[in-house]
Amino acid sequence: MSMVLLSYTDLALAAVLVIALAALSVRMKLSLWKQLIIAASRTTVQLLLIGLVLKAVFANARLPWITLIAFFMLLAAGREVTARQKRRLAGFWGFGVGTGSMFVSSFTVTIFALLAIVGNTPWYAPQYAIPLLGMLLGNTMNGVALGINYLTQAAWEQRNIIEERLILGEDRTQAILDIRRESVRTGLIPIINSMAAAGIISLPGMMTGQILAGSPPVEAVKYQILIMFLIAAGTGFGTLVAVWLTSHRLFDARHRLRLDRLAGFVESS
Amino acid sequence: MGKLVVEELRFRKHGPFSFLVNAGECVGLTGPSGIGKTLMLRAIIDLDPHEGKVFVDDIECNSVSAPEWRKMVGMLQAETQWWHDTVGEHMNNPPPELLQRLGFDQDVLNWEVRRLSTGEKQRLGLVRVLCNFPKVLLLDEPTASLDVCNAEEVEKIIKEYMAANGAAVLWVAHDLDQLKRLCGRYFVMESEKELREIKL
After folding, report:
1. Averaged over B56-60, what is the pLDDT?
2. A255·B66 Cβ contact <8 A
């Protein structure tokens, strides 16, 4: 069985559904229609563009190009993580910690998977490298953003407790241990949930796509399991590194809580 | 034994302040609200960045790790914080007679923290900090939310601890009668720059 190719008319039919939803929200005065239309347009334009980019890269599979695209994706993810922080680290740290930890985890796991598991020639074949990295970055980004956001927010709210623990002679690691543990948990819950629900409640997107494209279901499932494990590892390591770096930055060498290193800090008198 | 020596201490816009509290001596610190008395205690215990030197006997603050320093220099905050579920998880082998003198029996260690009143927290906070056997004690209005009876007991306990261990005590209070009762001298923080010593 080969894949049913979609025409632009087919896409237009699906778009009618979104437009109908927008029209309904206008009638119900939900003031949502603008966001809905903008988001739908963005999806269309961004995906068509990436389609063209991928087409070009697939035709010309050279490592420098793929590296360039990979770093572009990384920086975009870093920007997204920064934007999602309510109280981020001030200065370069806010962007650097999130981006650095995603780089370490997503890139390592992707390269490991390409070299040790997929084993293509060349190992960086873009048909595998870019979608793999994309899935890893997308999920790691969520974990990292949730983890850092919980950490800085909780440190802000529980500063009196952290400082009391320091006063009583605990070191910085002990004083923030509970918060740190909870931050990592918060970052990992989405992937743990989706692993637990996979196959029973949800059919993951990648596997569904492969089946639609005509792959035998069992082969598609094997790929999906691989991806789930890679995502769990990538998200886990990325969140751990990000939470560790951020909590380290929240204290100085003399074990003092330094909330003045968060953006928007105003010293009380 | 513990002698507290403060040399040219500066923090934020405050100071420089220099003074010492001898081993076994209790010195008061008073002044208008918001002038920076608590900030000074925080600087001494190295919880806020500061300049100048602080010694306990001949040990300089930066010559030991911050957690070691803070066990040597105990501080009782005006509002104590509790984070575990029960009281007992916060302290190391509290002496039963100390608990008893403050009106608690041994069962208090199983009490839930969220049910404690402000006064109970303040008294248990004292027990908690004394479990570290600090050589210097910084007390930030330690009897502010206690009734007369408990306040007297706290004063007695601190005096005895001071005498038995040769600890230096810096006692922040607004109540001048209390300071006169406890201290041979006290400081008035009159401004961010000025510490006036009053001998009794």
Report:
1. 93
2. yes
Question: Are residues A161 and B81, on separate chains, in Cβ contact within 8 Å?
Answer: yes
**For residues A266 and A262, what is the distance between their CA atoms, to the nearest angstrom?**
10
**Antiparallel, parallel or unpaired: β B136-140 and B51-56:** unpaired
Contact between A165 and A158 under an 8 Å Cβ cutoff? The reply is no
A25 part of a folded domain: yes
Answer yes or no: are the C-beta atoms of B135 and B83 closer than 8 Å.
no
Q: Taking residues B59-68, report their average pLDDT.
A: 95
pTM, whole model, 2 decimals?
0.88
pLDDT tens, position by position, B99-123: 999 999 999 999 999 999 999 999 9
Looking at the complex, does the CB of residue A266 fall below 8 Å from at least one CB of chain B? Answer: no
- When pLDDT is averaged across residues A7-18 and rounded to a whole number, the result is 93
* Banded model confidence at residue A2, pLDDT cuts 50, 70, 90: low
Residue (of A223, A93, A108) closest to A151 by Cα position: A93
Task: Give the domain range for residue A43.
Answer: 1-60
Domain presence at residue A269: no
Overall residue count recorded for chain B in this entry: 200
Which CATH number characterizes residue B16's domain? 3.40.50.300
Task: Give the count of domains, chain A.
Answer: 2
Distance from CA of B182 to the nearest CA of A (A): 25
Domain count, chain B: 1
Do A97 and A48 reside in the same domain of the chain? Answer: no
Q: Choose, out of B13, B14, B47, B72, the residue to mutate when testing the contact with A (most A CBs < 10 Å).
A: B47
Residues A104 and A188 in one domain: yes
A258 exposed, middle or buried (CB, 10 Å; 0-12, 13-18, 19+)? middle
Check CB contact under 8 Å for A256 and B77. Answer: no
ipTM confidence score: 0.94
Whether residue A269 and residue B34 make contact (CB cut-off 8 A), yes or no, is yes
Helices (H), A158-171: 159-167
Residue B136: name the closest of B48, B58, B72, B52 by CA. Answer: B72
What separation in angstroms does the CA of A24 have from each of A15, A42, B103? 14, 21, 68
Closest CA to B189 of B34, B2, B10, B12: B34
CB contact under 8 A, A256 and B45: no
Q: Which of B83, B92, B130 best tests the A interface by mutation, with the highest count of A CBs <10 A?
A: B83
